[in-house]
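step: validate -> pass
step: tokenize input -> pass
step: predict -> running
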Amino acid sequence: MRTRKGAARTQAKKRLFRKVKGFVGGRRRLLRSAKETLIRAGVYAFRDRRNRRREFRALWIVRISAACRMRGLRYSQFINGLKKANIELDRKSLAAIASHDAAGFDTIVAVAKKALGV
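step: predict -> pass
step: emit ->
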């Protein structure tokens, strides 16, 4: 018996149109436009998941740098001092400490300065 894809195709279209809910115009209503838009949205999402990490790292570095300069040390010197003192804190936690715990960051800077001999 010859069968056609009626039910499966309808289900696939429904699944696709559920994913494009919130898009505007033909990008929501027309099958081909919706498909193309969804593929492009996926590409952007993939790319920007990586870009988000890059942008956050840059933000943390700016915050750490500002906190270090307030304490008379450049960012590069600070990181070098941490490496010499064998302190393995990542930039995310350093930025959080710098913005929320000034006293704690002061002690870290003091240890880095001591390791540098400044």
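step: describe -> The mean pLDDT is 95.
step: cleanup -> pass
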